[in-house]
Design goal:
heterodimer; A: 262 residues; B: 6-stranded mixed β-sheet
């Protein structure tokens, strides 16, 4: 059976907008309202960040939102409690993204069962090694209908990209350049050679580009090279502006999509 | 070798390389090359000559007569404090900088707690004319000012880590992020036996010179290569890894790892990972670490910046779990008393980190004929401000 991620790519193979936010930020109980607003504004896929004290792959914006969320009392059990009835309200594809240690402490198997029960479609655990996944967890993910999403970077060799493509069944998260999240030094996504190299591989999984995507221009450029793009840090910054959650989210998403039809 | 790393980078159940994909090519490049490069004759020759003529090795093994009398046993001090830059840290930075050069890297990054590893890295970068960036927690920058000044004088850029507890853990996070941002030209010199495989094994091998020399020196002085006890302090655990290395498979040698209890194990202000930690992932390694029930890494505390780390190297986690090493923990106060004791009995001012190992002597139960080696990992110059503040020398 296909999960919602696989259905999404089958129905809408391009121009996808995926948004990442940190659960429990800015306020503990904002998690579900943010999901609902994102859906209302035509976002295609949502990545719910599970905060970790030491997020190695993240820049200052996500580090700080994670610190605040932890201080607010967001934990994995709390997040699962918040998402208890989520599938009664929305059918948007949902991915949980976080680091391995909190998931290990919850218990990997228990975590996967619970996520599946709540209607989660996939997971991104950047520090779970491919080899460990294949050896210990792949069967469990599959039993629970969960896609495990892997990252690739401009430095990932072709053979490894192909190996990742074999073992995943949702999409491939293409990190736009060598960086942590939230780096917006360039006004454009310029790593064209890398994007073309990857699209030339004829992979079975679609790709979405993330890291450094922060406005309409970078979103559009990314969409020219892949099925869509992921925005995280720029969205989190938008959440902290003066104004209501609803206004901030709709203003931000409109600024990304502009005249495109959602 | 029962306690050496296996082909997948594990010590028992601990170790591995839990890194995001952005770091995979760098870590993999190192994994594929480190043993090969280290075995090359010209690498060995260059390293040995630098260790001898530049660092000042072999370091002496000194029989501490008055300290021995006090504890009614035979105490030898392995004088790593006499290395160039004042601690064992340079054994590792010499090795890694030569490796970095052979890998064609031109930019060096490092993390530092007490500043000893930062100084040792800045020193070898000056020697090799390579750019050097050292990440150091904002709190540690304040409490280890002399080492910050030394790094700057050596030409390094010291970048304050301002996230989290603003100590060694956060400096390590920042160094890892720098490496993610600069994957092509940059080499990360980790200062302890922590991080993703192959770092714990590589750093242990570079520090193993400590126990290699110890064996020869003990044979000469006592007629046996093997002491009854080897005692070392453990933050991440590099000096302990070096002091234990050649004794790991000699069970009659008792290995004693001494952690920082801070204000006391149960005070909530401690860095005694073997007691307070449980299994998890930190800095790319599966090991024991101090964390909340929800898996958030907790902020450790010790008066000693070099021991103020919430994890421990995977080798030590394995030595703890297998029972091969005895783990002790020493409070700030006990460590300070040990500083004064060694200073007044032997005329040696030790580093705060090292003082934790010294403070454990009384707990060993060593007999009059036993031979105890303390790894005197560093000297106390960097801690003088703390010592002057804590000890009231006026009128003494």
């Amino acid at each position: 059976m296909e999960n919602r991620i696989q259905q999404l790519f089958a129905q809408k193979p391009e121009g996808l907008l995926s948004v990442y936010f940190t659960a429990g930020f800015p306020n503990l109980e904002d998690t579900v309202p943010i999901i609902m607003e994102l859906e209302k504004n035509g976002v295609d896929l949502i990545e719910i960040g599970m905060p970790f004290s030491d997020p190695l792959a993240d820049g200052p914006t996500i580090q700080q939102s994670s610190e605040v969320a932890i201080r607010n009392g967001l934990s994995i059990p709390k997040l699962f409690e918040q998402l208890q009835d989520i599938r009664q309200h929305t059918q948007i594809p949902l991915v949980l993204m976080g680091y391995l240690n909190p998931v290990m402490q919850y218990g990997v198997e228990r975590f996967l069962c619970k996520a599946s029960e709540l209607g989660i479609d996939g997971l991104i655990l950047p520090d779970l090694p491919l080899s460990d996944y294949v050896r210990e967890y792949k069967a469990l993910f599959e039993q629970n209908g969960l896609s495990n999403i892997f990252l690739i970077t401009p430095q990932t060799p072709e053979q490894r990209i192909r190996e990742i493509d074999t073992h995943t069944n949702g999409f491939i998260y293409m990190v736009s350049s060598a960086s942590v999240t939230g780096t917006t030094t360039g006004q454009s996504v310029t790593n064209t050679a890398y994007f073309e190299r990857v699209s030339g591989l004829g992979l079975r999984n679609p790709g979405i580009i993330g890291f450094g995507i922060h406005n309409h221009d970078t979103f559009t450029q990314a969409c020219n090279h892949a099925s869509g793009a992921i925005i995280g840090s720029a969205f989190i910054k938008a959440l902290t502006k003066a104004g209501s959650l609803e206004e901030n989210i709709s203003t931000f998403i409109q600024s990304i999509r502009q005249n495109e039809i959602a | 070798m029962k306690y050496s790393v296996d082909e997948n980078g594990f010590y028992g159940r601990f170790g591995g390389a839990y890194v995001p994909e952005m770091l995979y090519p760098n870590v993999e490049e190192l994994r594929q090359n480190y043993l090969k490069i280290m075995a090359e004759p010209d690498f060995q020759e260059e390293m040995q000559s630098l260790l001898r003529d530049y660092v000042g090795r072999p370091t002496p093994l000194y029989f501490a007569r008055r300290l021995s009398e006090k504890y009614n046993t035979n105490i030898y001090l392995k004088r790593e404090d006499l290395n160039h830059t004042g601690a064992h840290k340079i054994n590792n930075t010499i090795g890694q900088i030569l490796l970095a050069r052979r890998l064609g890297k031109t930019r060096i990054i490092a993390e530092t707690g007490a500043g000893q590893h930062g100084v040792a890295t800045a020193t070898v970068c000056a020697l090799m004319n390579l750019e050097c960036i050292v990440y150091m927690g904002e709190v540690d920058i304040q409490r280890q000012a002399p080492n910050v000044a030394r790094m700057k004088m050596l030409g390094a850029t010291v970048v304050p880590a301002t996230s989290g507890s603003r100590t060694l853990k956060d400096a390590t996070n920042e160094a890892i992020r720098d490496w993610i941002n600069n994957p092509e030209d940059t080499y990360y010199i980790i200062g302890s036996v922590v991080g993703p495989h192959p770092y714990p094994d590589m750093v242990a091998r570079f520090q193993a010179v400590i126990s290699e020399e110890m064996k020869a020196q003990l044979l000469e002085k006592t007629g046996s290569e093997n002491p009854d006890y080897v005692v070392a302090c453990v933050g991440g655990g590099s000096n302990a890894a070096g002091a234990f290395y050649h004794y790991l498979d000699t069970p009659e040698v008792k290995l004693v790892a001494v952690e920082a209890a801070g204000l006391g194990i149960d005070s909530g202000e401690s860095a005694a990972t073997s007691v307070l930690g449980k299994e998890g992932i930190i800095h790319g390694s599966r090991t024991l670490l101090m964390q909340t029930e929800d898996g958030q890494v907790t902020e450790p505390y010790s008066i000693s910046a070099g021991l103020d780390y919430p994890g421990v190297g995977p080798l030590h986690a394995h030595l703890h779990q297998s029972g091969r090493a005895i783990f002790e923990s020493i409070t700030d106060e006990e460590a300070l008393q040990a500083v004064l004791e060694l200073t007044r009995l032997e005329g040696i001012i030790p580093a705060l980190e090292t003082a934790h190992a010294l403070a454990a002597i009384g707990r060993l139960g060593a007999k009059p004929n036993d031979v105890v080696v303390i790894n005197l990992s560093g000297r106390g110059d960097k801690d003088l401000a703390t010592y002057l503040d804590r000890f009231n020398f006026d009128g003494k």
